Description:
Blueprint: E1 10-14, E2 22-28, E3 34-38, H1 40-43, E4 48-52, H2 69-76, E5 80-83, E6 94-100, E7 110-115, E8 119-120, E9 125-127, E10 131-138, H3 144-148
Antiparallel strand pairs: 1-10, 2-8, 2-10, 3-4, 3-9, 5-6, 6-7
Amino acid sequence: xxxxxxxxxxxxxxxxxxxxxxxxxxxxxxxxxxxxxxxxxxxxxxxxxxxxxxxxxxxxxxxxxxxxxxxxxxxxxxxxxxxxxxxxxxxxxxxxxxxxxxxxxxxxxxxxxxxxxxxxxxxxxxxxxxxxxxxxxxxxxxxxxxxxxxxxxxxxxxx
Length: 159
């Protein structure tokens, strides 16, 4: 559930489920590492958008069976995602993985770029893909969905 997620958590989303947070995809049930999302709740478009799993060393981006959380946690241990501050731009995301395979933190290991093609946004729905596994980057009011929501103005009538 979205209220239980924290930045850095691993999240598993199954087919026809709505994304509970903004998530960087690290693995998909699709052998090519692709997941498809419908973004009608975000931008009104009903066509599916392809999102790609990041090529994390030691992790198969596409896997037919359910993900192995132990393998994912071990591969991501010590790694961090450095990314832009929360914003409302749906089609922009810049970041990078730092410290992949470093076993001790962000000062060693590989770096890997993360783009909007790797990010699944809160409010979008996973379609035609059994599941994706990803790392939460924004939650709550920091998600792009919430940054794009506006309060409706109060209506006041004169008597």
